[in-house]
């Protein structure tokens, strides 16, 4: 994994003006990475005690990700035990209460031994002229790393805190502003997605309510139609009336305006559609079934099951197969929200059209 480092020194001990290629380890030296991290803490605490900044015992990129998530800069310390300035810096500066409190409150801290593992790689990349060596880094756009400040050699606690404070104030506007913009964009995207989900859920609830209301109205009409007038007992229904409405008009010989050939053709079309629908419904996942209630201008209704992957054209084929009288050119309309499903929508699936799992459509003659 390669990262470009943009070195931007601010009052640092030494400035680099050329970009460097920073190569971090991927899946190599697995036996060294974790032991190196704990080796630094173990060695440091044995010699200087447990009062020190909170150093994350993890890989460099993991600590950098933590800093990015917490919207903080990262404080990097390369420890060189054999350097003559190291003991005084660790005891008097790095472990001082002022430095510990300031680093823990404002930075994500990471340290490593300068002569092994990732610490050696960082030393080879940043090329410190002297030790002790500290740096302030931050993730930058384009999968790169920005070094905002480098501090080398002996330094007092007050001077270190002053440099760190100035770095946070001056660089925080640029890097913090970019992070704030990205965070705001992510927040807006999440809010937009949540609003879309709420709107879809509300639309589905309203469609279900409209469907159930239409179904209830049709049931009431059907119930009133079969109620005996004036409390008289209803006469037995003839065998021919037991057929569905669309079958009665096809088999009723009094309807002479429909020739025998047309009636036969309608019967054949409907029978074929029944066979096709029965075959399709067998083995269908119930969750993939779409219930469509179709209401006709004469008050009749038909309810039919489709697959959610069927297209709008399937509903038209079903209506055509009924061969209802007076139904020529027409279009299908959803009542709420009002939407016309015409020629341009023939190729849309029922699910994409918002008709799944159930919907109520009105057939409007043209």
UniProtKB/TrEMBL annotation:
InterPro entries: FAF1_2-like_UAS (IPR049483), Thioredoxin-like_sf (IPR036249), UAS (IPR006577), Ubiquitin-like_domsf (IPR029071), UBX_dom (IPR001012), UBX_domain-protein (IPR050730). GO terms for biological process: ERAD pathway. GO terms for cellular component: endoplasmic reticulum. Residues 184-205, 218-262 are annotated as: Disordered. The keyword Manganese does not apply. Keywords: Ubl conjugation pathway. Residues 285-363 form the UBX domain. This is UBX domain-containing protein. The lineage of its organism: Eukaryota, Viridiplantae, Streptophyta, Embryophyta, Tracheophyta.
